[in-house]
Design a protein that fits this description.
Blueprint lengths: L1 H24 L1 H10 L5 H15 L5 H8 L9 H21 L5 H19 L4 H9 L2 H32 L4 H45 L11 H17 L2 H10 L5 H20 L6 H16 L6 H33 L3
Helix pairs in contact: 1-5, 1-9, 1-10, 2-3, 2-9, 2-11, 3-9, 3-10, 4-9, 5-6, 5-14, 6-7, 6-14, 8-12, 8-13, 9-10, 9-12, 12-13
Length: 348
């Protein structure tokens, strides 16, 4: 029991570290546009985003339950599986942060969980193909894959449509009036985006910690119960994400704020509003989405509303490659890490 409890504590710590890294990795999602349009200085924007990330984390626990109970049965995994999943996700996050690539922390976590669970089942004599099919057809993975495809498309279309609507609404106003008005409105849209980010992304770590707690309880012979997220887990994850956001993710911010399109306040308002709305709808449906995917595609949609050539599609292509690679690379890394941990620590 002692070693199992120790590993549980380490897994909770890894989950909070992942949440912190998720926060600073995704700082750009909430504030890149408001900084690039010079509406707020960088440090002020980051602190504002951290505060709204924190409050957003208390919106609900539906996404946490999808992560914690709909991908793998807590009774059928161990703490080593969850630790390997977290370490695989953290490794990919740090790599993409270092390279300044806007990738998905959410899908790195999903990929890590799928890879670690798959390897665990194969080690315990399941057929590799059967284990993979079972995972890919689980309720949580199916919902995540649907959200992976649909949410960027909705963000792209939303950014495009909202930008067209705004241009039609303000076309009679002087540019100086438009800029002054949308500089103020962007404070609202940036806060809205940060709140939406917290509502979805903080729940991923909540789900992982809840999965670890349920797995530990099952290993100790506790009777099965509904998967509930303890209050202390919600508060801890909200704090970890807020602190990560407050530390700032400046490498990725340059890509989001300058390299995709040249943004003005009206563009930033449209992109943030479309992205935040998409994310909150996904949270309502308990779907873990990539806030990075959504805001990136919303920025592209806003740029495309001017003209197709306004978007730097070479940069967008690099982001797309990272999107495609995130789940499989995180899965492979997590699977390898599980084999190493399993060989070293056994079936703890």
């Amino acid at each position: 029991m002692g070693s199992s409890l120790t590993i549980l504590v380490l897994v909770v710590a890894f989950a909070l570290v992942f949440d912190y890294i998720n926060g600073f990795h995704d700082t750009a999602n909430a504030v890149a546009t408001v900084v690039s349009t010079n509406v707020l200085p960088g440090r002020t924007a980051v602190l504002m985003a951290a505060a709204f990330n924190f409050f957003g984390a208390f919106l609900g626990v539906g996404v946490a339950k999808t992560i914690g109970g709909d991908i793998a049965d807590p009774a059928s995994v161990t703490q080593l599986v969850i630790a390997a999943a977290l370490l695989g996700a953290i490794a990919w996050n740090l790599f993409t942060w270092y390279r300044g690539i806007p990738s998905s922390s959410s899908h790195a976590l999903i990929g890590g969980l799928v890879g670690a669970v798959w390897c665990y089942r194969v080690v315990h004599d399941a057929s590799p193909d059967d284990a993979l099919i079972e995972l890919l057809t689980s309720k949580g993975v199916v919902l995540t894959l649907k959200a992976l495809v649909l949410s960027p498309l909705v963000g792209l279309a939303g950014g495009f449509a909202l930008m067209i609507l705004l241009l039609w609404t303000v076309h009679r106003l002087r540019p100086s009036v438009i800029n002054r008005s949308f500089r103020r409105l962007q404070l609202v849209s940036a806060s809205f985006m940060a709140f939406a980010h917290g509502s979805n992304d903080a729940q991923k770590s909540m789900g992982i910690i809840t999965l670890a707690l349920a797995s530990y309880a099952a290993s100790q012979g506790s009777p099965e119960s509904d998967l509930s997220v303890p209050t202390w887990v919600i508060v801890a994850c909200a704090l970890a994400m807020a602190l990560g956001t407050a530390s700032g993710g400046w490498r990725i911010m340059k890509t989001m704020g300058h390299r995709i399109i040249k943004l003005r306040p009206i563009n930033g308002f449209a992109a943030e509003t479309a992205a935040a709305t998409t994310i909150l709808v996904a949270t309502w449906f308990k779907a873990p989405v990539s806030t990075t995917h959504v805001i990136s595609s919303s920025i592209m949609g806003v740029g495309a509303s001017k003209r197709v050539s306004a978007v730097r599609w070479g940069v967008a292509g690099n982001i797309l490659i990272a999107w495609i690679l995130t789940i499989p690379v995180s899965a492979v890394v997590a699977a390898v890490l599980f084999r190493i941990l399993h060989a070293w620590l056994g079936r703890a």
